[in-house]
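Repro:
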Amino acid sequence: MTASVEYIPVIPIEYPDEDGKPMAEGDIQCSYLTYARNALRIYFQNHPDVYVAGNLFIYYEKGDPESVVAPDVFVVFGVENRDRRSYKTWEENNQTPDFVLEITSKSTRSKDQGAKKGIYAFLGVREYFQYDPTGDYLNPQLQGLHLVNGNYFPVAANTLPDGTVSLPSEVLGLELRLEAGKLRFYNPATSQILLTHEEEATARQAAEEKAQRLAAKLRELNIDPDSL
């Protein structure tokens, strides 16, 4: 008599790409999230081993879909720059984010200051920045933390002569600046603010229109613009 063996199928573990919930951020938070992600993507576009993403699930323990976090914006060095539906650390040679930015608000502050901060320290995120665009609770509005021996310590801010607040990011080689309450990334190597493609197009159009107005004014004065 042969004993029968019951076959129990192995159900694969699912790692969802989304939680089915609508984004809770307001328009202001979304606009800065989009700016930060796109500006950094453009800055690193020629680096095939730098990955920039935002609002993407990061799974950090294989076999446990509950071990997940979704930073507003993050940068990982040493992994392929390609599109992903989610980021699983065990598929990326255990590389975790080096830089994280949260566009924070009153509704997210408990997670941003508590659970997420602890997870980022656990994952070894070297720099963790927070920006509160409405100034509802974070004072100052822009704050940075640097990981030292598993603990976060504040990044010292500099105030420029025009009142702009600047925080250096050693990880990115950039500065995060607060200009009249607005977050901008600044490249000290070129002395320029990082722009998105849309902002570059708008700035270029404005420069062209200014040049046309100047040329028209010179012609009114009987001065050939090409002679200058």
